[in-house]
Design brief:
Blueprint: E1 3-5, H1 10-19, E2 55-56, E3 68-74, E4 86-88, E5 91-95, E6 100-105, E7 111-116, E8 126-130, E9 133-139, E10 144-149, E11 155-160, E12 170-172, E13 175-179, E14 184-189, E15 195-200, E16 210-213, E17 220-225, E18 230-235, E19 240-245, E20 257-259, E21 262-266, H2 292-305, E22 312-316, E23 347-349, E24 354-360, E25 372-378, E26 384-388, H3 390-393, E27 402-406, E28 409-414, E29 417-422, E30 428-433, E31 484-486, E32 489-494, E33 497-502, E34 509-511, H4 527-544, H5 568-578, H6 584-602, E35 612-616, E36 621-623, E37 634-638, H7 642-659, H8 662-667, H9 669-678, E38 683-684, E39 689-690, H10 694-697, H11 702-719, H12 722-743, H13 745-748, E40 775-782, E41 788-794, H14 820-836, H15 860-873, H16 879-882, H17 898-908, H18 918-929
Helix pairs in contact: 4-17, 4-18, 5-6, 5-7, 5-17, 6-7, 7-11, 11-12, 15-17
Length: 933
């Protein structure tokens, strides 16, 4: 029987509870038969078992001596940070981002078979090994889900679903289950591929689920989380058992862990840094390290004071009860912060109901000497015990690693190195494997051979094979998988290489391979699907009754970052430009909304005053006016920010152009031109642009300034104001001339004229002897002599650009886009980024961690939107090529994902192959769009 569920079913909760044994005190072990047994040396899924505990009872691997390389393979492309090697019998399985799944011989590493899925595989597959069946399951970014014969690689069955599959499937009782970015959680018959049930959440599901088998062995509970921080529990029939709201920024590609009647969820942290809370931390924990009880009590009180910053949850697996009850006991099941963006989840000794994980200790602000502690929590009682200080268990003075628990040995991996901490003796061996924990980005392969033999000749771009995308300091925990232990062997993936390690002396078999950058892309939506989706999103947004407001993902500042996005002007422009692709009813409602919004905000003098406003994380509200409070997590802007003024002027033009409401512009023309006149004091003839104060305006946005001039000129011509049109045309033409100058500024300037580093960059073709570099000006300063000087960043290597530096935002009407030199430089910049970050269109789900007091991995959607829209509006990619690179949706957003609306609009404006009438397509599809309302 198939079902689609959207609401909790109370009867199912009662039925499950009635059938359960008395477990209120967590005094018995519920799991009767674990899919991962002590006698079995196979490693069949992410974290070793479907409870995701990363635990085996014991290991024969010697923890006191060095491990030796048995064999090593480079498989040609990036292997995502959520991929572990799987082991079943004599085969080792590895999924690669070029869409290939490899089966390797366990003893030699030689390829036994390869399956080409046709799309990126971002997560570890899962293997069913039962009653003669050996089947491997995995999903792809294109939404294809495969079941293969794990012995031969032959396809058993496959299905295609909407959205991307960015998690590891769970298996129990011949059900295979996974979530997708189109908000669904699916269950299929593991043997036949028959659809069983699905559930629709309110946001994307990219977390890896966990399964708790029940006493009769065929029934189970499955747990997963959605992007907007909901934790779910379902039974084997697809009935919702419970649902809990969590806090944090969002939940994205995290792993759920369940053991001993407790299910553990993590979400993502707000604020700067990856390692600890730095905003209003407990005063008592600053300075000298505090004792464990003080640390526990202080952090528990911190999350009691700031509940929206909490990111760790313990729930009763059967009822969903939050086990942290601070009014009863502040420290039992207390939330602590587990570092590294969801890449570290607790490991659990299920025999003793003890979970272990690193978390914040004390000792002051982040200064590369974290005070991390290794904590043990008894899942039966909720009582914490400190099991190691930073100096005792951590491999590095500033890092902790990704764990695997084997008996009493706590293994950790960082970059390409392995350490092991003995929980009994409290002895730590940080020299188990690798070349030392002192360097973030020094793959062991660099000591083994010459660069031309590494990474398929791409050694200069080796950071693309780590977990932090193109960030130059890529390394640490996001460049290596946790150890996979199987018999006498340990398997790891580091920097794109899969290795088998042993404590025995061996002659290593190493194959450095060749680059295999296969052209793999998404299954792009057809024009009908794109029109349908943009209408659904706009309709849902209108129905929600939400008022457009700014947002922030980073909650921390970087010099070239915008800090906040989706301001008033961007909302109006985005919805206006989407109008041609909306149904008649949606068009009518959007026009009404825009008219009201333009009058109440864009033409309201209040929103052009010198006044700071803040978007506050803890309350989720805008504070206006606002004084920055260092104890709060805030992103702020000034209403008279000249970049925002320019954005609003462009928005007014877009509104009039697409709604044909020129009367509103005419009646407010004096107000509009007055706002433009206010910017004139910042005009600099030498620069050819307005040079705004960076503290007020943020980065230098030349394309936005040009778009503003085009907008004013066109509005003036439409109205018949020749004076304004002529004046603006002069400024616009000077900007066009100087836009090309600043485009080539860093290449044409001498070293002494440029502020910033002039070394350590590559051109897009990999040659260090390039004729030009691709750094772009993001800030202008006027010297005392009146000479404008540019600060710059560049695409690739050691810089995370946040947006396409020098080109953000992208405006379709920009006249300079048609300049061949401009097009070529944009193309080269994008190619430079893609060498380090080829999978940019994963957007929110790709890993990136900007270095320099802003370590966070939430920034990719802006960059993805910039690159996609540059390809659409500047490089003129045709529809069917562009559609295969459509960035994925936001992790927690639904209809309010403004980047998605912008990207769909850009896609629908793209050209179609000769002989096909795109306009006819859209008109035809409008007839169908009306049906979904």
């Amino acid at each position: 029987m198939t079902r689609t569920f959207r609401k909790p079913m109370i009867s199912s909760i009662l039925l499950v509870i009635m059938l359960l044994p008395n477990f209120w005190g967590f005094n018995s072990v519920i799991t009767k038969k674990d899919l991962f047994s002590q006698e079995d040396t196979d490693w069949l899924t992410w974290n070793g078992n479907y409870q995701r505990t990363s635990y085996i009872p014991s290991t024969p691997v010697n923890s006191g001596n060095r491990l030796n390389t048995k064999w090593k393979r480079f498989l040609g492309e990036r292997i995502e940070v959520e991929v572990e090697p799987l082991v079943a019998g004599q085969l080792v399985y590895v999924a690669v981002m070029n869409g290939k799944l490899y089966a390797l011989d366990r003893e030699t590493g030689r390829t036994q078979w390869v399956f080409e899925a046709g799309s990126h595989i971002t997560n570890t597959p899962s293997i069913l090994k039962d009653e003669g069946n050996l089947i491997i399951y995995f999903g792809t970014v294109s939404g294809d889900f495969f079941a293969l014969d794990a012995g031969s690689g032959e396809k058993r069955w496959n299905v295609a679903v909407k959205g991307s599959i960015l998690s590891t499937p769970s298996i129990h009782s011949n059900q295979v289950m996974f979530g997708t970015t189109n908000n669904y959680f699916y269950s299929y018959d593991a043997l036949s591929g028959k659809f069983l049930w699905k559930y629709q959440a309110d946001s994307p599901i990219s977390s890896t689920s966990a399964v708790l088998p029940l006493d009769n062995d065929s029934d189970f509970l499955v747990f997963f989380s959605s992007g907007n921080n909901y934790a779910y529990c379902f039974d084997s029939s697809g009935h919702e058992v419970w649902k809990q709201k969590m806090s944090g920024v969002f939940t994205r590609r995290n792993t759920v862990v369940v053991a001993n009647g407790v299910v553990i969820f993590t979400t993502r942290k707000a604020g700067p840094e990856y390692s600890e809370e730095l905003t209003d931390p407990p005063a008592i924990l600053q300075g000298e390290p505090a004792d464990p009880n003080t640390v526990l009590n202080s952090w528990a009180n911190y999350y009691l004071k700031y509940p929206n910053r909490r990111t760790l949850y313990y729930f009763d697996a059967f009822t969903g009860k939050d086990l942290w009850q601070p009014e009863e006991n502040l420290e039992k099941y207390a939330p602590l912060y587990i570092p590294y963006w969801g890449l570290i989840s607790p490991v659990v000794n299920t025999n003793e109901s003890l979970a272990y994980f690193p978390a914040s200790g004390s000792g002051g602000d982040h200064s590369l000497d974290h005070d991390m502690r290794l904590w043990q929590i008894d899942l039966k009682t909720g009582i914490y015990t400190q099991y190691g200080t930073q100096n005792q268990f951590a491999p590095r003075f500033d890092e902790v690693g990704r764990p695997t628990l084997a008996g009493n040995l706590y293994y950790q991996t960082i970059s390409e190195d392995i350490a092991v901490y003995n929980l009994t003796s409290k002895l730590n061996n940080i020299n188990l494997f690798g070349n030392g924990f002192s360097n973030h980005r020094q793959p062991v392969e660099f000591n083994e051979t010459t660069p031309e033999n590494l990474f398929g000749g791409m050694a200069g771009y080796f950071t693309r094979f780590g977990g932090s995308t193109q960030t130059g300091f890529a390394g640490a925990v996001d460049a290596i998988s946790p150890v996979v232990i199987s018999g006498n062997d340990i398997f790891i993936i580091a920097w794109g290489h899969v290795s088998a390690l042993t404590s025995q002396p061996v002659n290593p078999q190493i194959d450095y391979g060749v680059a295999d950058f296969s052209k793999v892309s998404l299954n792009g939506p057809s024009p009908f699907q794109a029109v349908n989706e943009i209408n659904e999103r706009v309709y849902d947004f209108l129905e929600s009754g939400q008022i457009p407001s700014p947002g922030s993902r980073m909650w921390a500042w970087k010099q070239i970052d915008l800090g906040t996005y989706w301001h008033t002007g961007e909302w109006v422009s985005s919805l206006s430009r989407a109008l041609p692709f909306l149904s008649i009813s949606n068009q009518k409602r959007v026009k009404e909304l825009l008219n009201s919004y333009v009058i109440s905000v864009l033409l309201n003098p209040t929103y052009y005053e010198y006044r700071r406003a803040c978007f506050d994380f803890d309350t989720g509200k805008i504070i206006d006016p606002c004084e920055i409070d260092p104890k709060l997590i805030q992103a702020s802007w000034f209403w008279n920010n000249p970049n925002l003024v320019a954005e609003r002027i462009v928005a007014l033009y877009d509104y009039a152009k697409f709604t044909d409401d020129w009367e509103t512009i005419i009646s407010n023309w004096d107000f509009i031109t007055n706002q433009y006149d206010q910017l004139e004091r910042d005009w600099n003839e030498k620069a050819g642009f307005y040079v705004f104060e960076s503290w007020l305006a943020g980065p230098f946005l030349p394309d936005q300034q040009l778009a503003m001039m085009i907008s004013i000129e066109d509005m003036a011509n439409h109205i018949g104001d020749e004076t304004v049109a002529e004046t603006v045309a002069i400024r616009k033409n000077r900007m066009k001339e100087m836009r090309i100058f600043w485009l080539n500024y860093s290449n044409n300037s001498s070293t002494s004229e440029i502020i910033g580093s002039t070394t350590d960059y590559f051109s897009f073709d990999g040659s260090e002897q390039q004729s030009r570099d691709y750094r772009q000006v993001y800030s202008l300063i006027i010297e005392d002599t009146g000479t404008p000087i540019g600060k710059y960043e560049y695409a690739g290597r050691d810089v995370y650009p946040i947006f396409l530096v020098g080109f953000h935002p992208i405006y379709p009407e920009m006249v300079v886009y048609h300049n061949p030199q401009f097009k070529n430089i944009v193309k080269e910049n994008i190619q430079s980024i893609e060498k380090y970050f080829p999978f940019w269109y994963l957007a929110d789900y790709a890993h990136a961690s900007p270095i320099g007091a802003n370590e966070d991995d939430s920034l990719n959607p802006g960059l993805a939107a910039d690159i996609f829209q540059a390809k659409a509006y500047i490089l003129d990619l045709p529809y069917f090529e562009l559609s295969k690179q459509l960035p994925l949706v936001y992790a927690e957003s639904g209809s309010t994902d403004l980047y998605r609306i912008q990207n769909l609009t850009a896609l629908l404006n793209a050209s179609t192959p000769a002989g096909l009438d795109r306009d006819g397509w859209i008109d035809h599809e409008r007839n169908h769009v009306e049906k979904w309302k």
